[in-house]
Amino acid sequence: VHIMCYRICARGLSATVHYHNRENKPKKGGICVANHTSPIDVVILCNDGGYAMVGQVHGGLMGVVQRAMVRACPHIWFERSEMKDRHLVTKRLKDHATDKKKL
């Protein structure tokens, strides 16, 4: 269901997506690491498969997109400047990694 939601979002952005080198896609249980992904990158990536993202909270229109994405897939967003958020994110990441129902 979440892939369908992301495809609708991508079409709303008028995106035409072509994926190359599919053999490099993470296998089940694998990890994909990227630096400086934006909410739009998340929409494009999730058109091809299920990914759970971790990243900085955004405001404005990007914040609206982030909040919508959380409803479709269990992403973890945090505020970098808040030390308590860093500890909370660490706990949420551990919980997410041990939960078999997540992706």
From TrEMBL:
Subcellular location: Membrane
Keyword Cell inner membrane recorded: no
Record-level GO BP terms: triglyceride biosynthetic process
Keywords tagged on the record: Acyltransferase, Lipid metabolism, Membrane, Transferase, Transmembrane, Transmembrane helix
Any one of the GO CC terms: endoplasmic reticulum
Pfam family, one: Acyltransferase
Major location (coarse): membrane
Keyword Transmembrane included in the entry's annotation: yes
Domain Phospholipid/glycerol acyltransferase: 17-100
GO MF annotation list: glycerol-3-phosphate O-acyltransferase activity
Family, similarity comment: Belongs to the 1-acyl-sn-glycerol-3-phosphate acyltransferase family.
Protein name according to UniProt: 1-acylglycerol-3-phosphate O-acyltransferase 9, like
